[in-house]
Amino acid sequence: MPNRRQVITAAALTATGARPAAAEPQEPFRRPEGFPYGDLTEIRIRGRLVHLQDEMARKYGSKVIGGGPERQLALATPSGELFTFLDTGSYRTMIVPLSPGAAVEAYVRRIPRSMLIEVLQISRIDPSTVRRTFHCETCNIDTEDWGPCVCCGKEMALVP
Question: What is the pLDDT of residues 95-116, one digit of tens each?
């Protein structure tokens, strides 16, 4: 005797005119040549390492719980983007030993539709290469720190 789920599924298939997936043989999915990671892209980005919890609390007033002895590091780019590292074996061996504030160039795998990155290779660089100036039109102030203005809270523009 069929159970309730089987009866509902059969009724839905009959009503829509659909056939069960097993009725038609399907070819297995094959990735195109040259795309070993699907839609993941490998990119090289520069920035400075920051503690994610501290940056969110300082810039946006987030009340982040945790952040004990082991804290999540992120990569702040000169244009103001904030990338979060996936906590993988390569993250633990390459990123964690570096100190926050270090200027780095990272070769990473970017996760689609997110600001998550998986580090593949990382090296220290000259801090002046990632230093940028941001300007607030409202308050007419400049700073080297990305994010909202400390005075009025509006987003600051990157000075070319």
Answer: 778 888 889 999 999 988 888 9
Please tell me the distance from the alpha carbon of residue 132 to that of residue 152, in angstroms, as a whole number. 20
3-class secondary-structure state, position 12: helix
pLDDT, greater one: 49 or 96: 49
Q: In what order do the strands lie in the sheet with 134-136?
A: 141-143, 134-136, 157-158
Bridge-based pairing of strands 116-124 and 134-136 is unpaired
Considering the entire predicted model, what is its pTM? 0.63
Q: How far is CA 138 from CA 80, 121, 122, 149, 157, in A?
A: 19, 40, 38, 9, 11
Using the structure block, give the residue that is written with the tokens 């297995």: 28
C-alpha pair distances (Å), 126 with each of 83, 95, 99, 129: 20, 17, 15, 6
For tokens 């607030």, the residue is 136
CATH superfamily name and code, 41-127? Nucleic acid-binding proteins (2.40.50.140)
For residue 115, give the nearest of 47, 35, 62 by alpha carbon.
47
Place of tokens 């702040």: 76
Read off the pLDDT of residues 62-83 as tens digits, 9 standing for 90 and up: 776 765 656 788 998 887 788 9
